[in-house]
Amino acid sequence: MIQGIGASSGIAIGKAFVLPNWEWDLPEQKIDVGDLAREFDRLYEGIRTSKVEIEQMKDELREAVGPEESYIFDAHLAILDDPVFMNEIQGIIQRQYKAAEVAVKEAIDHFVTMFDLLDDEYMKERALDIKDVGNRLLKHLLGAPEITLPSDTQPFILIAKELSPSQLAHLNPNHVLGIATLAGSTISHSSIMARALGVPLVVGIESKLEETIQTGDMLIIDGGLGIVHLHPEQSLIDLYTGKQIMQSEKKQQLKGIINFKPVTQDGKEMELSANISSLKELDVALSSGANGVGLFRTEFLYMDRSRLPREEEQVEVYRRVAEELGSKPLIIRTLDIGGDKHLDYFELPEEDNPFLGYRAIRICLDKTELFKTQLRAILRASHYGSVKIMYPLISSVDEVRAANALLGSCKKELRAEGIPFAEEIEVGIMIELPAAVVIADMLADEVDFFSIGTNDLIQFTLAVDRMNEQISHLYEPFHPSVLRMIQLTVEAAKRKGIHVGVCGEMAGDLKALPIWLALDVDELSMSAHSILPVKERLLALRQQECRSLFNRLLQCRTSAEILALLELKPSEEQKAEAFPDIFKS
Ligand code: PEP
Ligand code: MG
């Protein structure tokens, strides 16, 4: 048994597929003069293979979506014939005696940096093309095989060193029974995505591994307990199969409350919404009876591609989500990259503290064209549903005003172009920095709603990097300081009469529910899989009792004391009283 950390609950039983490590290992030594011809041959062979591959992809894309998108590959083919690019590579091989792959890497870096410096969108796109083609060429020179996942008919348990959000975005959840990663944290975006997709995940097993896991090894993943069983005995497989059946029966049972209004015993109604990061997560959200989408993490739309999504492409996605939700609200959060979320084609600076660095609204207020493209797309989609805009990582009134000024100019442009949008679109902000909590009353004057991002708020309040395994025990959602931060925010919103929700992972934590009820929070937005369990508990609770409990929580001086009070569960009688048809016993 390997004890890791449970990051997404559920049980998976199946064979392992071990994802290879995809870091380019470039040769350091110089080549001999006598090897020059061989390096040139390797380079030309790599170019030929890359061209064949690109032609194939072009044909496939043309078949799938028509000729328009496939033209992108013509640009890639042209780069491989471009004399300036090729001369640069050849020059590095010939004059500096470097291996072909090193020359290709240096040429890519040279052109990408040069084009990036130009303040010209077209040239920036060309830089992305060079990077994309260059990486393809590198892959062939290094002989790195494609990542081929096992075929559709054999679902597997994925084992990886670490999984980035964009790698996870590539995976088809129907083929992946479960995941275990050697590193990772429960609050990383990959973990959040795994929960949203309902894929069991255990992270941080590296230090506990006594033997390496090989592709084909039999495994059991227990995402709730954070355990991986390697080569389990048949009796253990039977035991876990039984557990799996029980869990799916419980899920079935919860479906019985899908149409119940989320209201406590004494009449407090709470909106229960879903967090999504892609269209494919919307179905789960709707089938869990979500009130709407309280957080659409749009950055995933920017991943899994080789260039920034154009306005039209974004409109298409936002519009589809808005239309599928109909009159149900959809809160679209503007781009929140940086931290642990990267785009292959968007160079972020190397930073000592990326979570404190160039990210989210800070990038958007710097790269205003990128931001305006998204704002225009959201505005255009607002014509088709009940869309709201939310800015992440706000720390000051200035930032809100700057973002709103850009929103205003997008509105003006659309008006002039005669493109319809919701003139009165609501604008809100994430409250996820202590600075924002402290000036919440001032921020409330600028916006229509708040959504508390507990994931970041906890990390910044406690100064505990949410990705750092070594200090994960210090990441305490129920720390008294976090409780006070939350209280300050909700009370400021209430005083100013604006809507306040919670969209961090704590929103779906059953233990935290009495806190939200006591404070009279309006909305909880969470992974779709948590909606029904949270509703089940909500139906059994009384707001009045939660208020008394909260007063006692405020007296607690440690997380342990707070947790001890919150672990109290509603009695079976309370449950039976709340929904007698389901809990007949
Ligand atoms: C949060 O910080 O709580 C949040 C919801 O945003 P993210 O997890 O995407 O940073
Ligand atoms: Mg956040």
Walk me through this protein's architecture.
The protein is of the alpha/beta class and 585 residues long. The chain has three domains: 22-142, Enzyme I, Chain A, domain 2 (Orthogonal Bundle); 156-252, Glucose Oxidase, domain 1; 264-558, Alpha-Beta Barrel (TIM Barrel). It has 24 helices and 16 strands. The strands form two sheets. The chain has an eight-stranded mixed beta sheet with strand order 1-8-7-3-4-5-6-2. α7 links the parallel β4 and β5 (176-181). It is globular. The two termini are 36 Å apart. The model is unreliable at 578-585 (pLDDT under 50). The protein binds phosphoenolpyruvate (PEP) and magnesium ion. Magnesium ion binds next to α18. The active site is at residues 189, 503. One of its GO terms (molecular function) is metal ion binding.
Topology:
Layout: E1 2-3, E2 5-8, E3 11-18, H1 36-65, H2 67-70, H3 72-80, H4 83-96, H5 100-117, H6 121-142, E4 156-160, H7 165-170, E5 176-181, H8 189-197, E6 201-203, E7 218-222, E8 227-230, H9 234-254, E9 271-276, H10 279-287, E10 293-297, H11 299-302, H12 311-325, E11 329-333, H13 360-366, H14 368-381, E12 386-391, H15 397-417, E13 426-431, H16 434-438, H17 440-444, E14 449-452, H18 454-462, H19 480-496, E15 499-502, H20 513-519, E16 523-526, H21 528-540, H22 543-555, H23 559-566, H24 572-578
Parallel strand pairs: 3-4, 4-5, 5-6, 9-10, 9-16, 10-11, 11-12, 12-13, 13-14, 14-15, 15-16
Antiparallel strand pairs: 1-8, 2-6, 3-7, 7-8
The chain binds phosphoenolpyruvate and magnesium ion.
Domain PEP-utilising enzyme C-terminal: 256-539
Organism: Paenibacillus lycopersici
Binding site for Mg(2+): 432, 456
